Amino acid sequence: MNAELEKYIQNTSSYFEEKYSGAPTLVAYAPGRINIIGEHTDYNLGLSMPAAINRWVIVCLRPRPDQVISVTSQNYHDKMEYTLGQPFTPADSWEKYVYGCITIFGNQYKLNQGFEAVIWGNVPIGSGVSSSAAIEVALMNALRAAYAADMDDLTLVKMCQRVEHEYLKVNSGLLDQYASQFSREGKLMILDFNQLSSDYVDADMKEWAWILADTKVKRELAGSKYSERVRETADALKEIKSKDSSVQGFRDLTEKHLSLISDPVQQKRIRHLVLENQRVLKAAEALSQKNFEELGALLTASHQSLRDDYEVSCPELDFLVDAALQLPYCAGSRMMGGGFGGCTISLVRKDAVHKFSNFLTDEYAREYDIVTEINNYQLVDGAGSYKL
Ligand code: GLA
After folding, report:
1. Domain GHMP kinase N-terminal: where (predicted)?
2. Which of 3, 262, 268, 346 is deepest in the core (most CB within 10 A)?
3. 308 is catalytic
4. How many CB atoms lie within 10 A of CB 197?
């Protein structure tokens, strides 16, 4: 097990002992994720290239003999408590995740007793590295282990996705939860949302590194605009299907179908989807050939498409990408995740990471008076759980 993770588990477990007197009986953990390329493709059954990072949510849990559920957030120093079968209204958003997971799990697998748990995490919130999926996946893994539920990993991530849909009211795809559950140390995943399957490729980047820069901008529009994109692309597919009977689903679409879409905005959305899927395949090829200049160019093309065709970027993200692209040791850069804030991901020469970070930090502070945070994450294994 990752040594850093082990240390965090020990801390969370000690905190549990303080709060609930006595040791937890099991622990579950789930990482955040990055996504190299393939953005806003998951809910349209496309392709992506994510990997889990060394930032986690940890759940320490112990069953209770009664019907009480008591969950403490170590980060927020806040506790939610309710009795199974009694009405409960989650107040904060962390409570919505927790209550959503427990309720969806409980509807499937009858909960005959309660539990107490502590949740702790260091996945940055609102940075586009999927802190919310990490909570869901960690807690769902804890529940599966605690109630010895016969549930495979794919069912588990789909149940986590339902939490987003039903409790957070965001119709997100499976990218975040899938990456959090299925990632492997040192690997990138080529994830096919149509098949719901993944291939793993070696993430050895030779003299290059993936560097994230955080805009620190809250993703306020993210929820509503996200749902708008889901609707726009679904409507466009419906229109294409009505005009071309050979089209069954998103993956049958090619550039030649764009002219069948009457709304020019929807046409741009589908163009992003079709070309982004092609870019994922080209990126996998470039990676296998260790052609990092090509890989970088694909990242930058992805950003242009997300900015101009899919319209999910924002001035701060564009600024960080443009600043990165001024530097000769940066092969490419793009916004990462849902957009409207969060962070960028850039492909940077390892020996220039320090210079890169300083340049971006200075430029961004000058323009926005905000201190960006630069990160170079390790790629780690996906979620897990074990008895203590
Ligand atoms: C968010 C969503 C994901 C995915 C990305 C964009 O992270 O939660 O499902 O759609 O945006 O690729």
Report:
1. 97-182
2. 346
3. no
4. 13
User: Which residue carries 């339902």 as its tokens?
Assistant: 162
Given the residues 176, 192, 214, 309, the one annotated as active site? 176
For residue 238, the CA-to-ligand 1 centroid distance in Å is: 22
Residue nearest to atom 10 of ligand 1 (CA): 40
The residue to which tokens 């789930």 are assigned: 30
Q: What is the pLDDT of residue 49?
A: 98
221-242 residue pLDDT tens: 567 899 999 999 999 999 999 9
Can you tell me the distance from the alpha carbon of 262 to that of 254, in angstroms, rounded to the nearest whole number?
16
Question: Ligand 1 centre and the CA of 174: distance in Å?
Answer: 8
CA dihedral 234, 338, 183, 349 (to 10 degrees): 130
**279-331 pLDDT, tens per residue?**
999 999 999 999 999 999 999 999 999 999 999 999 999 999 999 999 999 99
Structure token digits, residue 307:
């900015």
List all residues 6 or more positions away from 110 whose beta carbon is below 8 Å from its beta carbon: none
Amino acid 71 reads V
Classify residue 5 as left (phi > 0), alpha (psi -120 to 50) or beta: alpha
Write out pLDDT tens, residues 175-224. Answer: 999 999 999 999 999 999 999 999 999 998 999 999 999 999 976 656 78
Cα 6–10–15 angle (5° rounding)?
Answer: 145
- Whether 44 shows a pLDDT value over 70: the answer reads yes
Cα end-to-end span (Å), the chain = 14
Domain ranges of the chain: 3-203+380-387
